Amino acid sequence: MKSIKKMPLDIFSKENSFYTNYPHNMKQEEYENVEEYYAALKEKIDNLAISDRLNDFELYFDIEPFEQIVIFPIEGLITYEGYKLGDVNFYSPRVEKYIKNPSDSDYELFNRKEEDIFNAIVKVKAIDYISGKRMAIDKIEKSFDLLKTYYGSKTNLIINSSKYITLNKEYKIASSGSSSKNDEYFKLKNSLEIDNYENNEIDLIFQNLEKYIFQSLEMHSQTQSKIISSLHWFRKGEETVKAEDKLLNYWIVVENLLDFKVGNEDSKSLILNKDIENTFNLAKELIPSIEIKELKMSIFLELFMYLRNLMGRASISTSTGEIRKALEIPMELQNICNLNSTGSFNLEPFVKNLEELKKYSNRKIISDKIETALNFYQDNSFAHTFFEEKIKLIQDELLNIYRYRNKIVHNAHYDDTLLPHYVKKIQNYANNLLRYVLYEQSINNTITLKEIFFKVHYETKLLLKKLNDEENIDIFSYKM
Questions:
Q1: Among candidates 327, 297, 210, 213, which has minimal Cα distance to 478?
Q2: How far apart, in whole angstroms, are the C-alpha atoms of residue 241 and residue 233?
Q3: Residue 16 DSSP class
Q4: Which helix (H) or strand (E) element contains residue 450?
């Protein structure tokens, strides 16, 4: 997915003396020397018309997988003699080095000062370095799974995936990366600074949780037990590495919370009229209901942030040298709409003045975004169609997520190209579902999961009916 997202940027990228992201098909070996190659490359890219760039987009589909050798630092395994397991070779860079250029060989140390340090090196074939890195991690994880099954160890086997080196088939450095998220400095820098967070709503949720989360299990109600278990599985999803594990952990959160029937209710239909009330069918119905609650406000908030961001951006005209703002709105209107607010703000004046704001949009893309929000606010039929299309999209995504879940659990073959995309989706849906339950329970700590979901389902159906019946409602102020 990262590679796909980069394609539009790369297709319009500029040549940079030694490297370009542009998907050209020029080969260095076809030129007498490297200077001649770079001169030809520069000339080609400097003379590209937009039509040439768009036509060259087809080159992405002609890319053949190429050989790569990827190295990661690892923890939890010791081998001074080297240990090979399938495509994965574990070794100590203090004993052996793989990078051919002696001046670069210390890169295999990854800035570690200790004597006892170890790496994993993996050979893969992939269409780009991002895919190659992901494939290498997957192979190392599989080797760790095998080793852990036969050789018990109290120390976890860990890949430091934030640091890596990719070599070409001549064992020369082709790519490398280091986010250093596992270094002590960056661990501290990226740690949660709880002192910086102040949120009354979250404080209320935490205060409610404190009443039972630390009690013994037998004292928990069914809803409390489900919440505590879901919090645990969501954190496991956040902290695990493999995409498959993340998806399964997030789905467990959904299963946990939607398994709300008690006693003889298993055979009864409490929310759905026609479908069997299993986890998947409930998820298809209830997750969109919760997302609609968020969407109703987010469509205006996202536009607000978009316009405010444009107001702060400027460009210099190449012909006149003038500095021009991306969006110019009179100061009086900015103040009325709270576009200059730095702290908390009221969104209502902004929504009420969308028509006026539209007059100052100087580009079609801006006008279209404002027009969409206006139609959503003023036209019930538009809002109803908008919601129905969003519900269908979410249900389709949930179906694909569920298919991935089943294939992973049953060890069936699946194409993992889009797996990271659906992991992000289920992460978001599980998070919103869990947060919604926590919020409702903080308001009424005796409410059950069944009551929470019945309420949100009813409120969503009622809103859609009112919109469809063209009732006179203010979509912005409408309470759910």
A1: 297
A2: 14
A3: B
A4: helix 449-468
In angstroms, what CA-CA distances link 345 with 247, 339, 374? 36, 9, 20
Instruction: Provide the CA 111 distance to its chain's centre, in angstroms.
Output: 30
Query: Closest by alpha carbon to 258, among 87, 436, 379?
Result: 436
Contact assessment for residue 269 and residue 283, using Cβ atoms and an 8 Å cutoff: no
pTM across the whole model: 0.70
Dump pLDDT digits (tens) for 176-226: 887 655 566 556 666 666 565 666 777 788 887 877 777 777 788 888 899
CA angle, residues 63, 64, 69, in degrees to nearest 5 = 115
Take residue 6 and report the two structure tokens written for it.
Answer: 């980069």
Task: Quote the distance between the C-alpha of residue 389 and its chain's center.
Answer: 22
Contacts of 83 (CB under 8 A, 6+ apart): 77, 89, 90, 91
- Amino acid 226 reads K
**How far is Cα 374 from Cα 360, in angstroms, rounded to an integer?**
15
Q: Locate 12 and state its tokens.
A: 């319009």
Residues 161/72, Cβ–Cβ less than 8 Å: yes
* Cβ contacts of 237 within 8 Å, gap of 6 or more: 245, 246, 249, 250, 253, 427, 430
Scanning the structure block, which residue is given the tokens 């080095």?
97
- Rg of the chain over Cα atoms, rounded to whole angstroms, equals 27
141, containing H or E segment? helix 129-150
Per-residue pLDDT reduced to its tens digit, 278-320: 889 999 999 999 999 889 889 999 999 999 888 877 666 555 6
Angle formed at CA 305 by CA 299 and CA 306, multiple of 5 degrees: 85
Residue 98 to residues 92, 121, 448, Cα–Cα distance (Å)? 11, 9, 59
- 148: CB partners within 8 A, 6+ apart: 157
Q: Which two tokens stand for residue 63?
A: 């890319």
CB atoms within 10 A of CB 186: 14
Q: How far is CA 393 from CA 390, 427, 436, 468, in A?
A: 5, 16, 20, 19
Residue with token string 């389709």: 396
- Residue of 322, 301, 469, 289 lying closest to 369 (CA atoms): 301
